[in-house]
Amino acid sequence: MLFFAKLDAAKGWTKQLHLGARRNVNTLARQTLGPDTGFDTIGDFPQIQSLAAFLDLLSQERALPKMILYNSNPADTLPFATLIGSFQDGEKPAKIQYGSAWWFLDQKQGITAQLDALSNLGLLSHFIGMVTDSRSFMSYPRHEYFRRILCDLIGQDVQRGDLSDDDALLGRLIQDICYRNARR
After folding, report:
1. pTM score, whole prediction
2. What is the CA radius of gyration of the chain?
3. What is the residue extent of each domain of the chain?
4. Is residue 40 classed as helix, strand or coil in its secondary structure?
5. What band does 135 get if pLDDT is binned at 50, 70 and 90?
């Protein structure tokens, strides 16, 4: 992992880590249908200590690449959101990202919890939004679903008076999250 992370940093590439899933938990189903056929679950193993040590070592060696961390355990949403803040180095805004709600969290409650965590513990304005799994037809409606949830949360903040009712400002924020931040 260290070797490849260093290569990514040297090339200026963005490393993506998808963490937290426990794969192929049903032996009979795996024997009958084969591996990776949908019999997976949320892993309940500790991740933050090892992940923090990994990021810290790369940081100490000045070899921390741009990185997106995806999580599939709702118990780790807040720890992931705070961990990314510990490794922002000023070199590039939002160099370490908490990637979009993924796998078991790719639904309204998971997306909302992640957006709330990012908003409360960092800068939601730097978030890269929903990703596309181009192999899946369902990627397209998933983006629309994400945008509706994002706009609903921002609309609720405006109604409560937490955000100003400024269409130009909020429009840029939503466009950044839904497109421009990932492109940058």
Report:
1. 0.90
2. 18
3. 2-183
4. coil
5. low
